Each structure stands twice: as C-alpha cells, then as structure tokens.
C-alpha cells in the first residue's frame, strides 16, 4: 500500500516521550543560562552586529544572549511548514507528530550493490540513488546520498540538478556557502517559475549545522541568513559527539544541543521574523573504546527524540530527526536491526523530518540495499499505526453473529473487502517451507538486492520539461564557468 502521503502516526495514542513538562522546562532554563553566561562564538560579523542591536552582549566573537530575545525568537517561527513536490502538490506538512522519511547526503563511499565493494560515488550512482528514492513509496523526500567527485568545486549544484531531474519528490539540500545555496535556489526557481512561487511552494529545505561546542561558523550563519531572507525552509542541526564535542550524559548533551539550535534560531528570526525553520539535532555519543560516534546507539536515539520533543511540545516548532542508519560496514543483520530500531523509535515519537535512511559505517558509506530494506520497515510501521478502527463495519458484530460458532469467514464478503487493508509485504517472505523452496529459497538480503538492481536497471522517473531542463543546464554552465575562472586566478 502506498502510504507516502498518509501519516497515521497521529493514531498512536501514547507517543514516545522521555521528559515530562517540568523536565523539559528545566532543560530550557538551563539552556538560557548557558547562552547568557557562556554564550556562543559567532564567526559572522554581520550577525554579531545584528545580535548586538537586538540586545545581546558581544565581546570579540562571543555573543551572550538575553533570555527575552530567545523567547521572542521561539514565538516568531512558524509551527508548521508545508513542503511541495516538483509538480507543485503538497508532499509534507511538517509540524505536530507527522513523521516523514528520506535519505542522508554526502557519504564519501557507496556499498556497490553489484560487487559488494566500498568505492567512491560516480555521477551514475547519484542518478541511481535519486531514481531509487523516487521509486520507493515510503520515501517522502531525498538527499543526495553521496559526494559528487566529478565536480569538486560545484559539487552541490550538480548534486541538486541530479536530484531534481530524477525525482519529483521534495529535497533536502546541502551547500558550501551562500553562493552555492543561491545557485541551487536558481535551479528551483527554474522549476517553480519565480522566486515568489518558490517561497509560496517550497521545493527544498536547506540542511545546515553549527560546530559543537557552541561555535557558529561564518558559512553556516551566512547560509542561515540567506534562507531566512529568502523564505527558504532550513534546519540548524548540531551533530554533536557527546564525550568528545559535548557532555557524554544525555541531559548535558541536550542542554548544549538546545543552546546551539536556539542561537541559530535567534539569528534566523532576526534576519526575517516568521521564516520557516525545522528544530532538532543529532547527538551520538563517542564510544571511547573504538573512538567512533555511535550513530544509532540507544543514547543517540533518546537524544534525538528528546530534543525533538522539546521543540514540538514546548516550542511548538517542526522537528528534525535521524533514522534508518547503522554502524555496520555491510548490509547485514546488524544493519537491518539498527535501522529498524531507529525507524520504529522515531515513528512512535512522531519526529517530523527524518533523514539518513540508508547510511552505513557511521555515515561514511551509503547502501542502496539498506535504503530499499528500510522502505519495507517504514511501510510496516505505518500500518501498525493504523491501530484499531472502531466503526460499525470494522467491529463486525453482524458478521460474528451470522457465522456463529460452527462457520468460517473465508468466503464472507466482509473478509474479501477488508483483506485489502491488511499489510502486504513486498520483500518479506510469508510462504511455507515448500513454497519458499519452490520460489528459489532466497534470503531476505538476496530479495532486497534483486529489487534494488531491478529499480536501477528498469525504473524511469518522470522527466523535467524541455524548458526546465535547458534552464538548469544554463545555470550549471554558468556556475562551472565561474568556478573555472576562480581556479585560474
């Protein structure tokens, strides 16, 4: 069943929460204390001047935030963001407890579905990734999956052109700097027709992040201001490693992560009050034994869900999440276990915009097979959230009375009618042993691999119009020419 535009997580009567109201307020007041007493390093002179005029104390590059300014910024930001697909139809309503899923970006390597080797991404791999996401009904948005090595200077622009050409779904984009996000915006305008129409019907969100602990680089702040001024939805997500770049305890990591998010929120709202922003972050604790960030540890899941809970329940803001990823190096039992655990946890919590589906190796490797497998998991989760329908026909009292203790339900029209509602697996095997043998005795991993290859080799996404295609080509030509000129200087 295609559930890509239907979010029934709202039917889950008891959402996953880890803090009560008083505890959320304690995290918030502790965050205010940090921002007022410790402050944050803001490496953007224009932002420092803006913050000073708004009442902040500025000493060198360190900015100290008054409580009232933070409370003001929280109230300015919208509680919902509607994001549209390439055709101009609503694809995501970010807010409340609606959960959407998509991939991550910029992995250095790909787990090759044909050979099993870890290797660098090619342009074709980027195209294949976008096609797979477009073909999977449970994927709601796409990111670029890997690094674009073929265009080292203008990689972000070329990544976006591949996404928008190979999928109608909305995107979350990465960019190097203000110029880069401006170029991406031009391509989106070529799709929408005007900057005003893009602001009215956003096609993409910008991914952005501070540097933990409590540092906001020039490039990150400059992109944040650009998005605010142009009404482009963005996030501002810490990627903290508790134990290394933040406190190792959950509560301490949450306080610092919240402080980093709120500092970005203040800058964003001062640039243009009411501009759309998604709130949340990743805090994956450092395993001090192997010195790796534990991308999907229990602590990381709790931190992600809890910061989103504070954003949703205390600040009334749309939320940002992580899911569908693993520390495993290959597509194996560990990968499916960790990814599935993360998907169900995020789903129960009702985090809005959840990325990184398909990540392996702590975000260093992307797996198309894990992505296809996660589509099945998300489909199953969304069916579970349908819960129990309590209308007269679903309660089936008349059928129970008619069949009685000696009959059966196999031939009842009611059974045939509602069998259509039952979850039908795409890759999961339900045959008996003989049926499984007769069908080829394949493992789940083999079926996932076959489905992945089938999409790569046979799926054809909806094309852009010739005019849109030509406009994007012209923008890329201009961008590449400018990059070449800068390289020669």
Provide an overview of this structure.
It is a single chain. The model is unreliable at 1-5 (pLDDT under 50). The protein has a four-stranded mixed beta sheet with strand order 2-3-1-11. Strands 8-7-21-20 form a four-stranded mixed beta sheet. It has a three-stranded parallel beta sheet with strand order 6-19-18. A hairpin with a 6-residue loop joins strand 7 (109-111) and strand 8 (118-120). The N and C termini lie far apart (56 Å). It has 18 helices and 21 strands. The chain is of the alpha/beta class. The chain is globular, with a radius of gyration of 24 Å. 47% of the residues lie in helices and 12% in strands. Helix 5 (155-166) runs antiparallel to helix 18, helix 8 crosses helix 9 (250-271) and helix 9 packs across helix 10 (298-314).
Shape: globular
**How much strand?**
5-15%
- What is the number of strand segments? 21
Mean pLDDT: 95
Largest pleated sheet: 4 strands, mixed
Low-confidence stretches: 1-5
Q: Given the helix and strand composition, which structural class is it?
A: alpha/beta
Overall radius of gyration:
24 Å
Q: First CA to last CA: what distance?
A: 56 Å
Please give the share of residues in helix.
40-55%
